[in-house]
Design a protein that fits this description.
Elements (H helix, E strand, L loop, with lengths): L2 H14 L84 H5 L7 E12 L23 E11 L9 E11 L2 H4 L14 E2 L2 E4 L3 E7 L2 E9 L19 H6 L3 E12 L2 E8 L13 E12 L2 E11 L8 E12 L4 E12 L10 E13 L4 E12 L8 E15 L2 E11 L3 H8 L5 E11 L1
Antiparallel strand pairs: 1-2, 1-18, 2-3, 3-5, 3-6, 4-5, 6-7, 7-8, 8-9, 9-10, 10-11, 11-12, 12-13, 13-14, 14-15, 15-16, 16-17, 17-18
């Protein structure tokens, strides 16, 4: 099937799916689970802007001790700004400012260098599809019926600013430990290079990002290992509404790259991305000649609509077994009201090889709708429905897979979010898939985690 036919088909489905389910904002523009005022709150893909505050809400000059604490009594109750009235039924919601480790240790120091992180723990009663065995590494959540430490994360960052007549410099380093380390490791490397052997059973260590950054005028450049700008869902637990992940995210998108990524922001409401990388999911290594272009754009096409298009093209490395391929990734964010946001995402991949066979022409595509409704600052409801199609999972058979998820985000504290959800996965080709994988594919599952930021 041609790229044109897939693209037109996905666009038509996106239009027809408008009344269906969706989510809330770009991975590069919004953090679901954290208060925006906290330095540690930013998703790892898009660091928070440097704070102009001296740390304690003091005036313009640092003056340690000018206030009894860094907390604020802002009198907020039911403060999401929604007019639906639903939030009032849930009682007062006065989260205030999130606590940060840096704010505690260095309340009045220069914030040009920031540090922080999060801890996430979760339980689920079934493997995420397409994982079928405990610890098989084929999904984010592949160790069911345990209380898992999914992510213990720490980062250090210095931003390189733009809009400057002089070059500025920055960097970022991330390290994490947990049951989801296999997803954050550079598994696109060959052999045991970088962090792919830092495992301890189903747990392990990962070094998801390590890059330097240069900013000059309207340009910024990351050089090193950085999270991909592709797609909507992300690896950090702080960047997603739902605990579980889509099939599309795991199977049709890269997670990280090693190379150079340039971002141009000199045009209002538009950002251009252009870069080069050593294929998909590598850590300072090249696997099977990986050599790709990474690029695209994000645009605010209307006041309440943001559109993103990204692509990777060339030798994708492990993902195509050293063959050439093309992928495109579209995210459309629609702010329907102060309380409701609808997201449509589509992905398409076409390659002359698959992860396991250099001679097999692999093709996948997906469409996901998200809908997020914010009751107040403490409570939000979410729905997600996904269609994903692939000829790789059951080799040679182009099969459709579906899943629908209903979830809740509850913030009992500015630093804590609890995310319960129920999910159903199914495929119309259940008999074919069951024979191929040796177990039943269709399943209900329950998952819940808690994320604490610092």
């Amino acid at each position: 099937m041609s790229v044109v036919r897939w693209t037109i088909g996905l666009a038509v489905m996106a239009f027809c799916a408008a009344p269906a389910m969706a989510q809330a904002s770009l991975q590069t523009a919004f953090n679901y689970n954290l208060q925006e005022t906290a330095p540690a709150a930013a998703p790892a893909e898009e660091p928070a802007a440097e704070s102009a505050s001296n740390g304690c809400g003091c005036a313009e000059e640092p003056a340690c001790g000018c206030e009894p604490s860094c907390g604020c009594d802002n009198g907020c109750c039911n403060s999401c700004g929604c007019d639906s009235g639903w939030g009032n039924c849930l009682g007062d919601c006065c989260l205030g400012d999130a606590w940060t480790l840096q704010g505690c240790l260095q309340p009045c120091c220069d914030k040009s260098i920031t540090y922080g992180g999060w801890l996430s723990f979760g339980y689920y009663n079934k493997n995420e599809r397409l994982s079928i065995a405990d610890g098989d590494g084929l999904s984010f959540n592949d160790f069911p019926d345990h209380l898992n430490n999914d992510q213990s994360w720490f980062f250090v960052e210095k931003l390189a600013t733009t809009d400057s007549c002089c070059a500025t410099y920055g960097y970022r380093f991330d390290i994490m430990y947990g049951a989801q380390a296999h997803a954050a490791q550079a598994y696109g490397n060959s052999g045991g290079t970088w962090d792919v052997t830092f495992d301890n059973g189903v747990y392990g260590w990962a070094l998801p990002q390590l890059y330097g950054e240069v900013g000059y005028s309207d340009w910024s450049f990351k050089i090193g290992k950085w999270f991909t700008p592709v797609g909507y869902e992300v690896i950090p637990a702080t960047g997603n509404f739902f605990y579980t992940h889509t099939l599309t995210h795991w199977n049709s998108e890269p997670f990280s790259h090693t190379g150079v990524l340039g971002v141009y922001s000199g045009v209002d409401d538009l950002k251009l991305y252009t870069g080069w990388a050593l294929g998909w999911d590598t850590g300072f290594d090249q696997n099977q000649g990986g050599n790709i272009f990474v690029g695209g754009f994000t645009a605010n096409v209307m006041e309440d609509v943001a559109f993103t298009w990204m692509t990777t093209a060339g030798n994708q490395g492990w993902f195509t077994s050293g063959q050439d391929g093309y992928t495109q990734h579209i995210v459309d964010v629609n702010t329907l009201s102060e309380c409701m946001t609808w997201i449509v995402q589509s992905d398409y991949t076409n390659a002359n090889g698959s992860p396991t066979d250099a001679n097999f022409d692999a093709e996948t595509g997906g469409l996901t709708n998200y809908l997020i409704y914010k009751l107040n600052d403490c409570w939000s409801l979410g729905n997600r429905i996904e269609w994903w199609k692939s000829n790789v999972y059951v080799a040679g058979d182009n099969i459709s897979y579906y899943d629908v998820t209903a979830g809740l985000n509850y913030h009992p504290h500015a630093n804590v979010v609890i995310r319960p959800e129920i999910r159903y996965d199914w495929t119309p080709a259940a008999d074919t898939v069951n024979n191929a994988i040796g177990t039943n594919y269709n399943q209900w599952s329950f998952s819940m985690d808690a994320v604490f930021t610092y």
